[in-house]
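Technical annex, item 7. During the second reporting period the consortium partners agreed on a shared format for inverse folding records so that results from different sites could be compared directly. Each record opens with the tokenized structure and is followed by the designed sequence. A conforming record, contributed by the partner at site C, is shown below for reference.
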């Protein structure tokens, strides 16, 4: 009998390096029971293949021997589909797993449905579209941290096309808060999401610019702290003029923060134009922002 536990690394490496599936096909032909073996975590070779980005033909070969393998859960509750989505398997491999077990599209693991896994695992826009169409209610389901797929898409820097897709199908998600009180905008700013994603969120839901997150920081404070670009800073100030007069939780004005961070001149000028009086504000050391610029 083939022992998956002892040969896990060999099998895993074979699947990673075998872009055509020929090596796996040879293993299955020699020892067909390999497809049904289980390691001490409850994983079958199909789980391993899915997490290793194995090609679609390799997955099909495993399913020919273990037809219900796509419905098999590990001890942690994961299906092969969850592994594939978390590890950005190809669209073809995702399709193979879903065709083998269509119900997987709505099944969660640790309160993360496949759409959560796709957004967190940088799945393609095409895969995200497929999951949304097949299981639209997944857009509204929350993870263990009360995150919608939209929160994860923003936190894991999904491209604009993916974020647009999620927002168009669930626009209310832009105002939904996670367990720590953060909106998708907060996640996008904190994780330095693409500029176009942040500008899109602000355009679709301008009210989010007024909302603080886990800390009593406005989005403007987060953007400056994370070194966001001038267009983002300008867009935030356009939606909430005068917000650069607000100090962050440490009692620091946006102007002083960006000067101390050696921010770009255009950002400094943008913030200063919104609040000229910030230039004369003294900190606890009786220093002006100008002192930190020198």
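Designed sequence (site C submission):
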């Amino acid at each position: 009998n083939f022992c998956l536990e002892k040969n896990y690394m060999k099998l895993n490496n074979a699947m990673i390096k075998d872009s055509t599936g020929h090596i796996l096909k040879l293993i299955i032909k020699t020892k067909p029971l390999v497809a049904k073996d289980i390691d001490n975590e409850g994983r079958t070779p199909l789980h391993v293949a899915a997490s290793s980005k194995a090609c679609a033909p390799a997955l099909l070969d495993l399913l020919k021997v273990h037809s219900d393998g796509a419905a098999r859960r590990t001890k942690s509750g994961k299906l092969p589909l969850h592994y594939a989505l978390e590890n950005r398997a190809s669209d073809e491999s995702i399709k193979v797993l879903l065709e083998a077990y269509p119900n997987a599209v709505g099944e969660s693991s640790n309160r993360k449905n496949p759409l959560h896994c796709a957004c967190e695992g940088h799945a393609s826009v095409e895969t995200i579209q497929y999951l949304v169409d097949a299981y639209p209610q997944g857009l509204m389901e929350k993870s263990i941290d009360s995150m919608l797929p939209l929160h994860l898409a923003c936190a894991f820097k999904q491209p604009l096309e993916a974020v647009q897709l999620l927002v168009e199908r669930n626009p209310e998600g832009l105002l939904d808060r996670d367990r720590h009180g953060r909106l998708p905008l907060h996640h996008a700013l904190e994780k330095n999401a693409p500029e176009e994603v942040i500008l899109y969120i602000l355009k679709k839901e301008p009210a989010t610019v007024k909302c603080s997150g886990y800390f009593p920081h406005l989005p403007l404070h987060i953007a400056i702290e994370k070194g966001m670009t001038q267009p983002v800073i300008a867009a935030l100030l356009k939606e909430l003029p005068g917000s650069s007069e607000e100090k962050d939780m440490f009692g620091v004005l946006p102007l002083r923060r960006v000067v101390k961070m050696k921010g770009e001149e255009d950002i400094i000028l943008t913030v200063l134009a919104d609040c000229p009086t910030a230039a004369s504000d003294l900190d606890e050391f009786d220093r002006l922002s100008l002192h930190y610029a020198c």
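Residues 46 and 175 are 39 Å apart (CA to CA). The chain has 17 helices and no strands. All partners now use this format for quarterly exchanges.
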